[in-house]
Structures are given as C-alpha cells and as structure tokens.
Amino acid sequence: MKIIGAEALLESLRREGVDVIFGYPGGAVIPVYDMIYQKDFPHILTRHEQGAVHAADGYARSTGKPGVCLATSGPGATNLVTGLATAYMDSVPVIAFTGQVATSLLGKDSFQEADITGITMPITKHNYLVKKASDLPRIIKEAFHIATTGRPGPVLIDLPKDVSVDSLDYSYPKTVNLPGYKPNYEGNAKQIKAASAALAAATKPLIYAGGGVISSGAEQELIRLAEKARIPVTTTLMGLTAFPGNHPLFLGMLGMHGTAAANYAVTDCDLLLAIGARFDDRVTGDITAFAPHAQIIHMDIDPAEIGKNVRVDIPIVGDIKNILSALLTQLVPGNYEGWLQTVERWKKQYPLTYQPQEGTIMPQAVIEELCALTKGDAIICTEVGQHQMWTAQYYRFTRPRSLITSGGLGTMGFGFPAAIGAQVGNPGRLVIDLAGDGSIQMNIQELATVASYQLPVKIIILNNGYLGMVRQWQELFFEKRYSQVALANPDFTKLAEAYGIKAYTATKPEELRELLQAVLEHPGPALLNCLVHPEVNVLPMVPPNGPINRMLGVEAK
Amino acid sequence: MKHTLAMLVVNQPGVMARVAGLYSRRGYNIESIAVGKTEDPKISRITLVVETENEAELEQITKQLYKLIDVIKINDITRDDAVERELALIKVNATSANRSQLLEIVDIFRAKIIDVSLDALIIEVTGTQDKVEAMIALIKPFGLKELVRTGKIAMVRSAVQS
Ligand SMILES: Cc1ncc(C[n+]2csc(CCOP(=O)(O)OP(=O)(O)O)c2C)c(N)n1
Ligand SMILES: [Mg+2]
C-alpha cells in the first residue's frame, strides 16, 4: 500500500489503538492536519501546546493508555518542553509528535526551526528525528513500545515536513528490534525469597509504596500483601491511589508534608519495603536519618533507582506486579501485632488537624467537603502548591489512577489541561481540577477548550490570594518577607463566564457545601472560586533537609 | 579512580551526544572518549575513560548509561587483561642544535616523525597512556607547539588456548 507519511502516521496510531490526539496546528504539520481532516481522526484542539501535552499526560495517567500530542515545529515544539519534563519525571507514557522543517532546511536556522530532539534529550525516555518516510512505521512502533514498557516515559518523534508528504510502501511492523532495550520483568527468585525471609524475621515492617505500583497495575497485589501479612502502608504523593485512603492499615502520605504516623513509622520500622518508589528528597528529608533502623527491600523496574539515594539490603528489579505475586505465594508473615498497636496509637494521637476560623472558609475544609460529596470517587487533578498538599492529605482516594498531579517536576499549570485529558479518557467520570489561584492562571486559556468541547470538567480554585506555598516558606524561613507572592487576581467567575462557563464564588463557610454541590451537579464545565483563608500553612511540615520525624505542627493530643 | 569503559552502542546519529550529555548532566567527568565503527557497521564502540569517586558512583553512571535505548553493552575493562592504545601528534620546535636529541627520543619511544619543516617536527606516538605521557614530558622542554591526542581505545585479549 503506497501512502504518504502523514497518512502512515495516522494509520500507525490507529493500529496502536490511539483514539484521540491533543494538538495545535502550524506550518510544519499542515500535511498531518490535512490528513486528520480527511480521515476525521479524533483530535482535541487545545489553546496552547503546553495544554496539549499535559492533556495527553492526564489522559495517560487516568486511563493507563499512552497519551498522544502533536505540535508544530519551533515554538510549537518548545512549548511542549515543560510537559515532556513533567511526564518524564513521573514516568508517564506520552508520545509527542512535532513538526520539523524539511530535511533540506535542517541545521540552517530555517524559519521555525528548533533542535527539539537535542532540547528534549534529557527529558524524554527516547526521541527520534525521522529522516525518511519509510522509517516512520518502524519508529512509531518503537516509540509506543519504549513509552509503555519497562519504566514508562515520554517519547518524542520529530517529523520534517517533507517526510510527512513523501510516499512510502506502508506496512506496520509486528515486532521491534531494539538490542539496547531489554527491561527485566521477573524479579530474581532468590531475592524474593530473601525478602520473604526478611519479612518473617521482622517485627516492625512498613510498606512504602510509590507510583510504580500504579504503573504496574499492582494495586490489588499490594492490598493483598498488606492484608495478608498485616503490614501498615504509607505512600508517596505519586503512590496515593495505589492503596485505599480509608483502609485501616493506611497511614497516609509520608515525607515533607506527610502524616506524623507515617513519618514516625519510617523512622522506627525495622524493615522497609520500598515498592515502586524512588526515595525522592521530598520523601526522605535528611537522608542519613531516613529509616535508620531498617533493613531496606527495594522493588523497582528501573535498576538505576536501586542504590541511587539510599543503601539497599535486598534489591529486586522487575515488574512490581510480578514481584508481589511471587512474594505472595511464599509469604510467611511474622507477628506484628505490637507494632500495629504502636502505629495505631500514632494515628489516633497525631491526626491531620487544622483550626477552623470563624467566618472564613478553611482550604482543608473544602477538600474534606469535596471528598464527602464525591465519596472519594472522583478523578482529582491538582496544580502545584498548598492546595496540592491539602488534597494529598485530606482527600481519601478510593480508586487507582484517580489522583493526577505533577509530583516530580511540580509543574504549576499542569492540573487543568491534565483534567481535560482525563475527562476525554473517562467520559463518564467526574473530573475535578483542584487549583490554586496562582497555578490556574498558568494555563487558564484552556477554559476555551472545555467550553468548546463542553467537557464537564469542574474547576475548584482554593483562592488564597497568594502563591501560598512560597508564602509559607517565606513566613517560616524568611521572617515573613513576602516577596512577590501576593496576587492581584482577576474575578474568576466573570472570567469563566466570558468563556461561557458556569461559575460561582464561595465566600462563607455556610454556602460552601451548596455551591460545591451546584458545581458538581452542573452537567457541563463549571468553576467554583473559593475565597479561603489567606494565610494557612500546610502542616505537618518537615523543614527542608531535616529528619522526617521532626515536624512542625505536630502536637500530641 | 580511573575506569575504562568499553561500550557497544547502536550506530545512530546522536548517540555520542546522548552518552556525553548524560555524563555532564549528572555531574560526572569524562577524561577521554573515542568512538568508531566495529566489525558490524550497525554497531559502534565507544571507549570512555572516566574518573569516579567510588564504586557506587560508577555503578550509578553505568546504570544510567544502560537506560539509554541505544546502549547495548558496557564493560568495565579497567582490571581486565586488555591492550590499550592512544595516539598523539606532537608538534615541537626543532633547531639544528636539538634535532638529533629529539630523534633519539623518538627512537627510544618507537615513535615516528611524520612531518618536517625548517623549525618544527611533527611526531606521532602510539602506546599506552603512560607511554604517551612520558614522551610528552620529555618533549616539553624543547618547546611544545601543539598537541592532539585521540583518547584511549582498548580491547580485551582472548584467553590463551591450552
Ligand atoms: C511553573 C512553576 N513555577 C513556579 C513554581 C514554584 N511554586 C511552587 S508552589 C507555588 C505557588 C503556587 O500558588 P497557587 O497556585 O496559588 O497555590 P497555593 O500554594 O496558594 O495553594 C509556586 C510559585 C512551580 N512549582 N511551577
Ligand atoms: Mg494561592
């Protein structure tokens, strides 16, 4: 079959099961857009390329399928950079196509030329510059394979304009031949046995689960391990939906804004099972004081994570689901009842709390209320800042893949476009962007996208009038010198209304529930601007580089 | 400590940039890097000489290199029985007064003179890094005008058949 590059691209996407592209056109991709038109390929037009790549990311995180985005050369391509870095840091399978100047113009500073493969080398799992149309099917096949297997990650394909119009003899390869890419899926049996023996010998074991559990689809195995052996569980921000938020063995998130129970448990445990987590500095605090009494078992698909930040006693490289399944067949749990009692006491003694204040909406209360109204079942996307941490603390997630948040890169402006992708990928579900007043303005243009496709995304702004998280650091560590953090905000309701989106403002605690309900029940997109207390801090907080068992804001009850 | 890493990589444009970029990005130092095709034109060999602080650092950088899709195999051949060679071209001031002394050094090192002009010579020397360095040290006092070195390449010896 003789077809042109642009058609080969869409045909290959079809064969990969891609049902939507998030994108934005421009000169170098006009041939691709012409083919999208001719083939009527499903496409969501965002209002900025950053919106497109975050949407593809949100689609991928919420569905488990790779997300696809498309941008033109030069500025279109560079607008993808933050989104690719975001996906890379959180190991999300995104395939980005960029237009490029024709091969004859490459390297000549041609109009709208940017070396996007060079630029994105450190923020993609792999990338390609397609030199001939006949390479395209193989490259797309490889890209999907690389993005979705092993430790997932974004892959970029740069497509010169002539390549998309040249003809080729099309056939889609069935297999890939990548001699340098052989992820290891089976955990070493001897190591799994050693882990099982360590569990039998332990008296104070703790599970520390990360996003790898979700990437691997190992949530059920994790629950079975915890329940069968009766081991308490803490998770990272990325791991939050890997374990039910209302489970009696759940301690909440650990780390800088983790719960006291989780951080005490890490510091006290004698065996730490790190499962698909990577000992990030926001988790460990002072690394020398992290899990000081524990033997460490580290399970991860990526060998480079083993021993990167901490010494590991029992490394197990492989797919988490495989490793946990194997471990479950030979599990001989010890008796941890004394330890469970200790942990339970911490949970009771040091719950997450805040001081309600007369007449103002407390930000934490918004999330508690939202959690109650949605029964922990919504897909929650967040931006970055205090509201993100409060979401992690107060929303009790009940389903995997229902927290979509930029953990590794901490990208403000991520949540709203990610919510668009999540809504497109989950048409029947309630998708909410929990936003800060600062962050929402970083991709506010996407209001036009939800309006034009009538995507029923809900935006809830915790409007504190500040870049709150930065303000918190300035308050605590810079003697309240509030440098450049107070925001003069637009009227968010009027702004949303200008886009034709239903919007409300909540100013008093009494009206919060009713307005939340109104927004959630609205059939189309809707926005709630919650004017919350301006100077609340996220607590507990481990001061930067401190040991995680020393937290500000932990008072024994 | 210095390590010699022998890498096999897919012969793709950009593979050198990926390897070198990874090093600088993660804050490691490359002492030398040499690249060329192998007997299989689809595969290139990169010989890297790197300075690492400890074994853990070396292990981490090796694992990071393996994450590059185009990297097929990495061998640390520092302690292996390997032949190692480097080539240097040295341009040195040569007057009628010191020329014979220079020729003597060239002779001792089994180096070659590959260009002669009125006031300078170009010497080509191959050998281990130690040898090349010793030669350079001896030439320096004569007035070293220019120096280029290839970086080390290496090959592990086959086991002796009994
Ligand atoms: C793109 C980007 N720029 C800057 C930052 C640094 N930063 C982290 S949190 C934060 C404040 C966010 O303010 P807002 O969205 O209002 O959330 P709040 O903390 O007030 O809940 C800033 C500026 C960032 N994370 N991302
Ligand atoms: Mg704010």
Q: What proportion of the residues of chain A form beta strands (DSSP E)? A: 15-25%
Average pLDDT of chain A, rounded to a whole number, is 97
Mean pLDDT of chain B: 92
Evaluate the radius of gyration of chain A: 24 Å
The CATH H-level superfamily of the largest domain in chain B is ACT domain
Number of domains of chain B: 2
Determine the CATH superfamily of the largest domain in chain A: Thiamin diphosphate (ThDP)-binding fold, Pyr/PP domains
Sheet/helix structural class of chain B: alpha+beta
Which structural class matches the secondary elements of chain A?
alpha/beta
Shape of chain B: elongated
Identify the CATH class of the largest domain in chain B.
Alpha Beta
Terminus-to-terminus distance of chain B: 34 Å
Describe the structure.
The complex is a heterodimer of chains A (557) and B (162). Chain A is 37% helix and 16% strand. By secondary structure, chain A is α/β, with parallel strands linked by helices. Chain A has a 6-stranded parallel beta sheet with strand order 3-2-4-5-7-6, sandwiched between helices. In chain A, helix 19 links the parallel strand 17 and strand 18 (458-463). In chain A, 56% of the residues are buried. By secondary structure, chain B is of the alpha+beta class. Chain B has 2 domains: 2-76, ACT domain (Alpha-Beta Plaits); 82-156, ACT-like. Chain A, domain 2 (Alpha-Beta Plaits, 2-Layer Sandwich), CATH 3.30.70. Chain B contains 4 helices and 9 strands; from the N terminus they run βαββαββαββαββ. In chain B, the strands form 2 sheets. In chain B, strands 5, 6, 7, 8 and 9 form a 5-stranded antiparallel beta sheet that branches. In chain B, strands 2-3-1-4 form a 4-stranded antiparallel beta sheet, covered by helices on one side. In chain B, strand 6 and strand 7 form a beta hairpin. The A-B interface holds A 117-118, 121-122, 125-126, 129, 146, 178-181, 302-304, 306-308 and B 9-10, 13-14, 17-18, 21-22, 25, 56, 59-60, 63-64, 66-72. The structure holds thiamine diphosphate and magnesium ion.
